[in-house]
Design a protein that fits this description.
The protein has 471 residues and is mostly beta strands. 9% of the residues lie in helices and 42% in strands. It has 6 helices and 30 strands. Strands 12, 13, 14, 15 and 16 form a 5-stranded antiparallel sheet that branches. The longest helix has 8 residues. The protein starts with a helix and ends in an 8-residue tail after the last helix.
Length: 471
């Protein structure tokens, strides 16, 4: 398709066409010409692609789950996207480009719109926090937070502000020497942390350090305790107005003194839920409470009560069907159907490890973080990730030479050269870093065009993703 043809198509037609294209093909589109690169990485298209109807998605028949499996034996984190259907088969294997400084695994803070927030604080004091989009393999390393003293406890939350189209990370820090809370918010649009300790309104609520979050309705939720009364509750942090609010929990949740009790929030079929685990001598009970009407205390309903043995380690999460993902001793992952009360073992490579640690969340592929300006048009901040080169392929098409490096489905680097007789060379670089590096031009300042090698095998290779889309 000649670049000039795009100039005559209405914007809404272009958006309708390109939102139907898979992520992998859209990454290839950024390499075709400068106008396509500009269009695909434009913030307005990134938003349109994110909000596209599910029927336009190339995998609309299935939901996706982001699965992380950490092998204690091999000290290795394995990420993959899986179809959330009966087969639970692998949709895409994801290379994890980060290495924990503590030689353990990164803690997943949360996932929103295809962006995963991870931090290296599982077993140490750390300030390494990353926003990572695994589907396009882009990441942004957050700057060092304001509070970085040696002894502190903290809680983190990650979500999206729909009003400003901004991604935010909230960090609640308790410093032992000061005996008070400090609250900071990182905004992707500004690339910096801001102190909101005086306006946050956390008050007398105590949240357990590194407590897991549940993100829904534009707010992050943690299970907490009122220090004045000792009663348990859920504390939410609204990503829009950046205020904390309490949510009443069912009577008796987390208060059984006869056994060890742990409670964490979750999202169950779009509703706020609580997972309660009670452990006593030789017995373990799991309960799931669901808030059918958000913010209404009377709408809490006990959805599940399950007695488990010692072979089941913990509840990992929920599936779109309402089934539970359960981790079993020996590194196995099971799916439990509450209606039939049956467990099904899922085919997941656990690296034959004695101890594993699964994490699972629903996932939606997106282009967020693609391009130099991210979602908002603001400069992406952060350090560049190390670019690891994988298997290199070389193809030659007539007098035009196409070099590109890829790892599985992701193009790491592409160089498109026109023949020397045309006296023009254009180099396009797409790297795994905090944004996309601009093309480096030598000679005339023109982009690569289709008519450079219109019938070559290299051009057919670039256009092959569009064969099934009527191009």
């Amino acid at each position: 398709m000649d670049r000039q043809i795009l100039d005559y198509l209405p914007q809404e037609v272009l958006i309708d066409i390109f939102t139907r294209v898979p992520i992998k093909s859209l990454l290839l589109c950024t390499l075709v010409c400068k106008s396509w690169h500009t269009f695909v990485t434009d913030p307005s298209f990134v938003i349109a692609h994110l909000n596209r109807p599910r029927t336009l998605s190339h995998n609309n028949a299935h939901d996706l789950i982001l699965l992380r499996n950490y092998s204690e034996q091999r000290k290795e984190e394995v990420y993959s996207l899986r179809f959330d259907d009966e087969s639970f088969r692998e949709y895409q294997k994801i290379e994890f480009p980060f290495k924990s400084a503590a030689n353990d695994f990164y803690r997943v803070v949360g996932c929103c719109n295809g962006v995963v927030c991870i931090t290296d604080d599982q077993f140490r004091y750390a300030h390494d926090t990353v926003l990572w989009n695994p589907s396009i393999r882009k990441s942004v390393t957050l700057p060092k937070p304001r509070i970085s003293e040696a002894k502190f406890e903290h809680v983190m939350g990650f979500g999206f502000d729909r009003k400003t189209n901004d991604y935010k990370v909230v960090r609640i820090v308790y410093i032992e020497s000061r005996k008070r809370l400090e609250i900071d918010v990182y905004r992707f649009s500004s690339g910096s942390w801001e102190d909101i300790s005086r306006s946050g309104g956390l008050g007398f609520y105590s949240i357990r350090k590194k407590a897991p979050q549940a993100y829904l309705y534009g707010a992050v939720h943690w299970f907490a305790t009122d220090k004045r009364s000792g009663h348990h509750l859920v504390v939410s942090f609204d990503m829009g107005d950046e205020l904390f609010r309490p949510i009443v929990v069912p009577d008796g949740v987390g208060t059984d003194l006869s056994c060890l009790v742990s409670v964490r929030p979750a999202v169950f079929l779009g509703d706020l839920a609580l997972i309660e685990c009670k452990i006593s001598t030789g017995q373990e009970n799991w309960s799931v409470w669901v808030m059918r009407e958000y913010g209404v205390a009377e709408s809490w309903t006990e959805n599940l009560c399950l007695e488990v043995g010692q072979v089941l380690e913990r509840m990992v999460g929920f599936r779109e069907s309402g089934e539970l993902l359960v981790e079993m001793s020996g590194g196995k992952l099971l799916s439990y159907d509450p209606e039939t009360e049956k467990f099904t073992e899922l085919e997941v490579d656990s690296n034959v490890s004695i101890l594993t640690w699964f994490h699972a969340e629903s996932y939606k592929e997106s282009l967020v973080l693609l391009g130099r300006h991210g979602l908002l048009g603001s400069q992406v901040h952060g350090e560049k990730n190390r670019v690891e080169r994988a298997g290199t392929r070389k193809r030659k098409a007539r007098k035009n030479l196409l070099y590109y490096t890829d790892n599985d489905v992701h193009i790491r680097e592409a160089t498109l050269m026109r023949s020397s007789a045309m006296d023009m060379r254009t180099k396009v670089v797409l790297q795994d870093c905090a944004g996309v590096e601009d093309h480096v031009q030598e000679g005339r300042k023109e982009s690569f065009r289709a008519d450079v090698f219109p019938n070559s095998c290299a051009w057919r290779r670039m256009m092959s993703p569009f064969c099934s889309y009527g191009f």
